[in-house]
Amino acid sequence: MTEDMSRYPLRLEGDDVPMVRFRNVTKRYGPLVVLNQLDLDVSTGEMVTIIGPSGSGKTTVLRMLMTLETIDSGVIYVDGEPLTHMERNGQLLPASSKHIRRIRSKIGMCFQHFNLFPHMTALGNCMEGLVQVLGLSRREAEERSMELLDMVGLAEKRDEHPSRLSGGQQQRVAIARALAMRPKVMLFDEVTSALDPEVISEVTNVIRRLVGAHDLTMLMVTHQMGFAKEISDRVCFFFNGAVEEQGTPAKLFENPERERTRQFLNAVLDAN
Amino acid sequence: MIEWRWHLVWELAPRFVDAAGKTLLAAGGGYSIAVVLGLVLVLAQRTRFRPLTFAVREFVELIRSTPLLLQVFFVFYVGPQFGLVLSPWTAGLIAIGLHYGAYLSEVYRGGIESVPAGQWEAAKALNLSVVRTYRRIVIPQALPPAISGMGNYLVGIFKDTPMLSVIGVTELMHTATAVGAESYRYLEPYTMVGAIFLAISLPAAYLISRFEKWVRRTLGMVK
Ligand SMILES: Nc1ncnc2c1ncn2[C@@H]1O[C@H](COP(=O)(O)OP(=O)(O)OP(=O)(O)O)[C@@H](O)[C@H]1O
Ligand SMILES: [Mg+2]
């Protein structure tokens, strides 16, 4: 069963091209449909938060955008160009790994469990992609990495290995590592879920600063409703692999239209 | 009761030193082949090309399910019937290299599988190439857990070198047997072989465990 790709544009053009566009994206694991014909746009510089019940496909959205998973149908565009596909002779074909690597360089991701490289120092973690992927000299890479470690408040931990850092510190190094690559889109998947409550604010403060200071497009999955409400331009409520409802935080949290959104928000508020 | 003759020991010493050198050469040569072959096998197994992964898996299974001695005979005696005439040394190194290469590929596989999926994902998110992901991220983390297995097989290959005596490699065992045939003395030559093996195996095991700790420390992986 191959999809007719001719209904998707080869690239997005015009005044209002979104930084990220999911069109009709479906993802299955065997018989389980995890994302069901998802449509989702994120504008340049926008901070979009995804909330929703466990198993609704929030992580999967980010993983597909990071190209850690392939999609079964539909197209994802990044910065106007297809990510999952590429243009050949006026047609969209599945992307080659070379094409994927080129588009992927625009995206960075932070994970729930940090995933720092344990055999490298904080500085080494930040420098790795700069030296090995972008081909910067060690001096340039160190300079850029130190700027970012400084930004996340960890300049003095530069020579520590991850095993000697607290969870909050590790996650801040992970954010610095991803930002050092200068992505246009940053993905955050429950970056505070594995942290002790008293260090969560170390990490959320860093993300707050990104919203203020950078022309960075961000897509964040979180269970922290207060943080989502405060920081987001838009909140998407996911249910069964699709966007059930979305809007400004004020509208979605104060005035949800859909019954499922209300139920979810009530359940979350009860739990807190 | 047969008495121990020291003068025989002194007389035989130069021959045994020479033979010990050849044993170490056989072990070292076979191990070098095995280390590289094991890596080739494990990387072949990790490509998702089905015929290749199938062939490699069957090969490893075959090697692990048959005795080394048979493999040595096979390479040395069956090879020539297919036009592959090899010297005892070459045949011996190939056989032992194949044998231990299969075992080492399993050690490597265990090491690689011990690296969490999140490490691969982080490498991908940084856009590292596959080659760099292996070289910079996966192998450094797969190595420490693999070292003790690699060390065991290094000692194992050393202890298995006597198998090569049966095809005429003049290592320690071969030398002791030759001495026995010439002089009808067995006590001293075989005792000397045992002593030499002990004198090498015991420190080697100790050095390997030191090396493992050193690697972990160097990679900053001590908890
Ligand atoms: N590799 C996989 N194989 C099979 N099923 C998977 C796989 N990854 C995810 N799933 C399933 O896909 C569904 C969506 O998973 P996903 O991780 O996107 O949910 P989520 O919304 O992030 O949930 P949570 O809030 O618990 O993190 C779940 O039912 C999950 O079990
Ligand atoms: Mg999730």
Description:
The complex is a heterodimer of chains A (272) and B (223). Chain A has 272 residues and is α/β, with parallel strands linked by helices. Helices cover 35% and strands 25% of the residues of chain A. Chain A has helices at residues 58-65, 97-104, 122-132, 138-151, 167-180, 200-213, 225-231, 249-254, 259-271; strands spanning 20-29, 32-42, 47-51, 73-78, 81-82, 85-88, 91-94, 107-110, 185-189, 217-221, 234-239, 242-247. In chain A, strands 8-9-10-3-11-12 form a 6-stranded mixed beta sheet, with helices on both faces. Chain A has a 4-stranded antiparallel beta sheet with strand order 2-1-4-5, with helices on one face. Chain A has a two-stranded antiparallel ribbon with strand order 6-7. In chain A, a hairpin with a 2-residue loop joins strand 6 (85-88) and strand 7 (91-94). In chain A, helix 3 crosses helix 4 (138-151). Chain A is globular and about 50 Å long. Chain B has 223 residues and is mainly alpha-helical. Chain B has a single domain, classed as Orthogonal Bundle (MetI-like fold). The N and C termini of chain B lie far apart (58 Å). The model of chain B has no long low-confidence stretch (mean pLDDT 92). The interface between A and B is medium-sized, with 27 and 21 residues. The structure holds adenosine-5'-triphosphate and magnesium ion.
Characteristic terms for this protein:
A: alpha/beta, four-stranded antiparallel beta sheet, 9 helices, B: 223 residues, MetI-like fold, 8 helices, 0% strand, binds adenosine-5'-triphosphate, binds magnesium ion
Most extensive chain contact?
A-B, 27 and 21 residues
Largest sheet of chain A: 6 strands, mixed
Q: In terms of per-residue confidence, which ranges of chain A show pLDDT below 50 for 5 or more consecutive residues? A: none
Q: What would the principal axes of the Cα set say about the shape of chain B?
A: flat
Distance between the termini of chain A: 46 Å
Query: Which percent band covers the strand fraction of chain A?
Result: 25-35%
The low-pLDDT segments of chain B are none
Give the mean pLDDT of chain A.
Answer: 94
Q: Order of strands in the sheet with the most strands of chain A?
A: 8-9-10-3-11-12
Name the bound molecules.
adenosine-5'-triphosphate, magnesium ion
> What does the overall shape of chain A look like?
globular
The structure class of chain A reads alpha/beta
